[in-house]
UniProtKB/TrEMBL annotation:
SUPFAM superfamilies: S-adenosyl-L-methionine-dependent methyltransferases. It holds the Pfam family Methyltransf_15. Belongs to the methyltransferase superfamily. Trimethylguanosine synthase family. GO terms for molecular function: RNA cap trimethylguanosine synthase activity. Gene3D superfamilies: Vaccinia Virus protein VP39. It comes from Melanaphis sacchari. InterPro entries: RNA_cap_Gua-N2-MeTrfase, SAM-dependent_MTases_sf. This is Trimethylguanosine synthase. It catalyses: a 5'-end (N(7)-methyl 5'-triphosphoguanosine)-ribonucleoside in snRNA + S-adenosyl-L-methionine = a 5'-end (N(2),N(7)-dimethyl 5'-triphosphoguanosine)-ribonucleoside in snRNA + S-adenosyl-L-homocysteine + H(+); a 5'-end (N(2),N(7)-dimethyl 5'-triphosphoguanosine)-ribonucleoside in snRNA + S-adenosyl-L-methionine = a 5'-end (N(2),N(2),N(7)-trimethyl 5'-triphosphoguanosine)-ribonucleoside in snRNA + S-adenosyl-L-homocysteine + H(+); a 5'-end (N(2),N(7)-dimethyl 5'-triphosphoguanosine)-ribonucleoside in snoRNA + S-adenosyl-L-methionine = a 5'-end (N(2),N(2),N(7)-trimethyl 5'-triphosphoguanosine)-ribonucleoside in snoRNA + S-adenosyl-L-homocysteine + H(+); a 5'-end (N(7)-methyl 5'-triphosphoguanosine)-ribonucleoside in snoRNA + S-adenosyl-L-methionine = a 5'-end (N(2),N(7)-dimethyl 5'-triphosphoguanosine)-ribonucleoside in snoRNA + S-adenosyl-L-homocysteine + H(+). PANTHER family: S-ADENOSYLMETHIONINE-DEPENDENT METHYLTRANSFERASE RELATED (PTHR14741), TRIMETHYLGUANOSINE SYNTHASE (PTHR14741:SF32).
Length: 410
């Protein structure tokens, strides 16, 4: 039952006594007619009083369950004698799990709204009314400006687009930045193979979705975070092309600011922002440029295993020392080649079997890949494609602006 709470006035009190909603009287009479009792009570009820009242009425087991809706605490459920009794009195505390591994409210554009009192539970991926204190329209950025000079720089990636996504012609959308940022599909599949059997994997810099799509093939659930709403929209579209959208939870946000609100996962797999093709101009690329230290510091609190997709000229000696600072037991550096040309490096932190001793392994992996060229390839076709992507992102931007102006919600 749900005893009378006295209306909405209960929210004005920091703590409500059990006597205010007649818990003792309900238990006194209830235990005479039923061996088990379940009560729906206010979120701010003093449950310590309920435990003492239960003991007076010979309640053997007690369970308190906090109920949340969109990560805002809603109420509590009190279970008296509902648990299996092993002969001893015991108390259990739980929170409801909604099968989404983060505790952030999500708006229609996947933008997180942080609650004042975070609750370490799991929220459903539902559409909630936007928080109008956040100006989504101003914070949205879509790279829709296309110039001839940038097309010249990125046209080479367009010509090999089907190595980035095998299903590119089925509706894949990439903006200009994503063409040189996304990981080739053959490497994404190799990365995903290292995570077979894992339940929940997190990618804090998902971009247009290269890694998360392949991870969703082999894992039960994937959390995809990116600071750019445009990238999240591209990733959502691309996940639908590969029919794995239902296994991915998308969040727009800065991983470094919301990491402390995320629940633990099995593994973190990501390709941190490298800063574009400029990394090739350096003989040795420092891990400090891509915040490896900060990623490991936050990541190791969320996951026991971390896999990073890094530039081919990364100074990995620094990475080993950074890993030792965070008690990394095993380290593996894998140089990835495509058609015998160095493409990138994969760093595995704690993914190897631990035999009790710290150890480091170096390996090389080569993938043979044929490049499919289309006869109609031209810069004009590429330019028209980018304009199409820009149109899709601008339309999304317009819809979001209308939503924030109140067009979607009364």
């Amino acid at each position: 039952t749900s005893p009378p709470w006295g209306g909405s006035n209960y929210e004005n009190s920091q703590s409500i006594g059990a006597t205010n909603i007649l818990i003792e009287k309900i238990l006194e009479l209830g235990m005479k007619v039923a061996p088990k009792i379940l009560l729906h009570v206010p979120k701010n009820l003093n449950t310590n009083e309920c435990i003492l009242i239960g003991k007076r009425h010979r309640v053997r087991t007690f369970k308190e369950e906090i109920i949340t809706i969109n990560c805002d605490q809603n109420s509590k459920l009190l279970y008296f004698n509902k648990l299996k009794s092993d002969g001893n009195d015991h108390t259990n505390y739980t929170m409801v799990n909604f099968h989404r591994y983060f505790n952030i409210k999500i708006n229609d554009d996947c933008r997180p709204v942080i609650t004042k009192n975070p609750i370490n539970v799991v929220a459903e991926d539902e559409v909630v009314k936007p928080n109008k204190t956040v100006n989504s329209a101003k914070s949205f950025s879509s790279n829709t400006v296309v110039t001839l000079s940038t097309i010249d720089d990125t046209y080479k990636y367009w010509k090999i687009r089907r190595t980035l996504f095998d299903k590119f012609n089925d509706g894949i959308l990439l903006d200009e930045e994503s063409f040189y940022s996304v990981c080739p599909e053959v490497i994404c599949k190799h990365i995903a193979d290292q995570c077979i059997g894992m339940k929940v994997v997190l990618d804090p810099f998902c971009g247009a979705g290269g890694n998360i799509i392949q991870l969703a093939r082999v894992c039960d659930s994937v959390i995809a975070i990116d600071i750019d709403p445009a990238k999240i929209q591209l990733a959502k579209n691309n996940a639908k092309v590969y029919n794995v959208y239902h296994k991915i939870t998308f969040i727009v946000g800065d991983f470094f600011k919301i990491a402390h609100r995320l629940r633990p996962v099995d593994c973190i797999v990501t390709s941190p922002p490298w800063g574009g093709p400029i990394y090739k101009q350096q003989l040795l690329f420092s891990p400090k440029n891509i915040l490896v230290d900060k990623i490991l510091k936050l990541g190791i609190k969320l996951a026991p295993k971390i896999l990073l997709h890094m530039p081919k000229n990364l100074n990995t000696t620094e990475c080993i020392w950074i890993g030792k600072n965070y008690k990394i037991r095993t380290y593996k550096e894998e140089t990835i080649k495509i058609n015998y040309y160095r493409n990138c490096k994969l760093l595995y932190f704690n993914l190897l079997k631990d035999n009790g001793k710290k150890h480091t392994i170096y390996s090389i992996k080569n993938f043979k890949q044929s490049v499919h060229f289309d006869t109609f390839d031209s810069k004009k076709v590429y330019s028209n494609y980018l304009k199409k992507v820009g149109y899709v992102l601008d339309r999304f931007h317009k819809n979001q602006r209308e939503m924030w102006n109140g067009s979607y919600y009364a």
